[in-house]
Amino acid sequence: MNLRLVLVGSASAASFFLHALDGIAKVGLLLALAALVAVCLRRASAAQRHLVWVCALVGAILLPFGYRILPAWKVLPSWMRWEEAPRLLLQKPAQVLAAEPSKQPAEILNVEELLPADDVPEAGFSTAIEPKTPASVASAEPKIFRVPVSDLIGVWFVGAAVLAVPLGISSMRLRRKKSKAHRLDSGPLFEICETLKADLCIRRRVTILLGDAAQMPMVWGIFRPVVLLPEKAQTWPDERIRAVLLHELSHLRRNDPLALWIAHLALALHWFNPLAWWAVRQLRIEQENACDDAVLRHGVRSSDYAAQMLELGADFSIDKIPTMALGMARSSGLDNRICGLLDPTKNRRAASRLLMLGFATLAVFVGGPLAMLRAGEPEVVVRGRILDRNGLVLAESSGDQMRQYPHGKAAAHQIGWVSPRFIGVSGAEKNFDQSLAAGNDVRLTLDLKAQQIVETAIQNAGVERGAVVVLDCRNGEVLASTSVPEIEPQQFVPQIEPGYWKKLSKDPNQPLLDQTTAKFVQGATYSLVAAVAAARTGQGEHAVFDCTGSLSVDGAKINCWIKNSYGNSHGPLGLRAGIANACNCYRSQLAMMMGQKELDIAAEVLGLEKISSQAGDENPISQRSLALVGIGQVFTRASPQQLAVLAAAIGNGGKVWVPRVALDEPPQLRADLVKLGWNQRDLATIRLGMEDCVNASGGTGQSARSDLVKISGKTGTGLIMDRGRAIAHAWFIGYAPAENPRYAVAVMAQGSGAVGRVRGPIARAILEALCLDAPESR
Predict the structure, then answer these.
(1) What CATH number matches the domain at 381-443, 3.90.1310.10, 3.40.47.10, 1.10.10.60, 3.90.740.10?
(2) Fold for domain 125-132+455-777?
(3) Beta-strand relationship, 386-387 and 442-443
(4) For residue 147, pLDDT beyond 80
């Protein structure tokens, strides 16, 4: 059976529940055995069958306590052991976590009025998170169902309380009846009662009460028994009085009020068990049948007694008898009682003391070993570890299930954290929750050393808000991924302080947001998508456009950054120079030449959002919007992770990988552009354009140039309105070494205009450190 039930709760609560579960299973078996015995005794007397049900219900109360009192007797067959059934895994929850903070959307800038100096602004900003591609859990992994133990115990208490309410109401009704009735201490009726008490060997004092005229005869009370009769009982014939009193006093002689309380106590404990309800019903039926038999054994003719029963049913209300009272006649089962009275072959023997002793002894010999039987102890599974690619521990649980994050903030958003019920709510803790909950370790593609290089680089640059993703160009493995500001996962264990949570949720830099998967408009990096679209159609070598410093499209004027900064123009540009120089005029004309359909095809193959999915009602978009798409102003959202995939695809010669985060899963190739027939010469031209962007004069990415390793890349800058203020976010995507790409990187930094000057140095520091530390460089 490929499922597991995980009980989430404290050790004491889980222990209580599992002990109760063991008792429940055994009580179910005991009641089923009692039902089988009762069926076998169907030709025995009602008193004997009643004794069976009394023993079973007493056992239902006592048997669960045998788990702790009696020694263990581990002789159960394997199929009855808990560990062979769907497995019960105990977990102690960390007391953590409130809901995710609200995301405040930023406004869209009018980018035609705000143009940054070194690149085209990005219009629009979205903090909507696109989840990383989760590695699927292997089909062999069990399905995990988490059930809070406290909830189960609470449901049981509610059920028991609901069953206790009618008992309380019944006691109140009986007390009210007793207060309204008057006591009978003398007279013919009293004398008959005393005579019958002597005949039945009842030595206890029995209170005789007379109620209203419509009162059904009944009896109740364990220590102070009461027989309640209607007022007109004093005028009944002696035969009828004798039959009624014999029936009611027989209940007392047999201690039926005590048996009834035992039955309802057992029902309150096992209200969820249908066998318990059936057992209580059978006990009440056999109580009445046994008392009827006692009446007939004392010389009352069966036909006369049946007639009196029918008269009682006609004269009195039989539907308003309190639960804990034993009425002379009830509506349910009255027909069967009459038939039983008239059956001359029915066994009407009483249960002798010797028989009672025998049944009690048998019950002990059956219930005792049953209580001693032990199901296998539940398997306590510690939540699995999260490891980096080299086996270093990123997250683990100690013996008491406390989650530990030994490297603090390192890769916090990628590792994630767990909820109070020990359910992963973010990062790898969420994506691999099923496997981790089953106790399996998960190895990520993250390299802790590479992660530390990335985090050091972005911290040294002073970036307060941003993200960096590093991929392996050869297979799409996510080697490092950081989101700034970072969080401290250990702060959530065992219980997050309300003040700290409030600080996190209200921080305008949104530390709980994983910005590696949040989407921002692409800016100038979108020119690579348009260039790849040109490679698909083979138009790259014909994509030559003239930059005059500005471009007018449908009344919209788009200035090139070189005109804004220096008052110049680029002149005629081909694909390579257009990419290297990030010319606004070139990019707009290239996008308009390709058209929305081709741009959408390229974006979809590269794993990016299509224009049509972002444009809303404006489909197809106008030429003016298409020009703005070309410079990355509208309908061009992408996450740092997606743009790292784009950079890797260009660097590795056209292989578009699905980001891979689980080392034990095979790489997934989204597309191979060369095998799809896309123009290899144009793809090579795009790579040269990215190389020139960093290494050639006039390139916008020269701040990433390195003397240690040749880097290729592409820059992009945008402006967004966040809470009424303009904030720049700058991109650098690229790969290295340029001649044989191994690492692809996407850097996104937000803040003042200065971020444009730190994106290149961040990428350079990361790629230098990674390439020089690579095994082939040693």
Answers:
(1) 3.90.1310.10
(2) Beta-lactamase (3.40.710)
(3) parallel
(4) no
